[in-house]
Amino acid sequence: xxxxxxxxxxxxxxxxxxxxxxxxxxxxxxxxxxxxxxxxxxxxxxxxxxxxxxxxxxxxxxxxxxxxxxxxxxxxxxxxxxxxxxxxxxxxxxxxxxxxxxxxxxxxxxxxxxxxxxxxxxxxxxxxxxxxxxxxxxxxxxxxxxxxxxxxxxxxxxxxxxxxxxxxxxxxxxxxxxxxxxxxxxxxxxxxxxxxxxxxxxxxxxxxxxxxxxxxxxxxxxxxxxxxxxxx
Length: 232
Description:
Layout: E1 4-5, E2 11-12, H1 16-37, E3 41-47, E4 55-59, H2 80-86, E5 95-104, E6 110-119, E7 125-134, H3 141-149, H4 165-180, H5 189-201, H6 209-218, H7 222-231
Antiparallel strand pairs: 1-2, 3-4, 3-7, 5-6, 6-7
């Protein structure tokens, strides 16, 4: 495999085959180091070319309730790694590192998170390796002691146990609308624009079909959705 080298010591893949080999290596790392991580650290690998089923490997997926085949926006809330991906980060970096930030699970637990986004020669992110540490057990002495004897890992949820992509898309759309709606009546133009920005912050529009679904729900056209995003 011939890798193209940018100025300096950093080497990045330049062809789809090379990107696939990097993904394959990272997948091996996730699948074979999970037992060493302990039960409170989730390690997840995303293939960013398939955002509606991006998770290709995961260790301790029970922490976030995800499994292989889960969508990219099915993870914890307040994900700065996902935000950096949406905003495209620094395309001149071979690997964008987003470290030392907190995310939230639906049940209120906070996670210490880190994301690594790997880019090809064109600066496009093609893979993301993310770690999420659940520190809640460390706050309890009993939890700490029990953790030493807990099973190293449990089977991750099967893809069909997770909500479908369409269900998650509808949920994000409705939650975004509910967050900005001042009344139970029709949304104003500003409220629609704000709702679209919230949807974008959740990574909704990484899935192409979501644009049509959001447009239909808001009673506007695809072109209007893109205008809202451009002005955001």
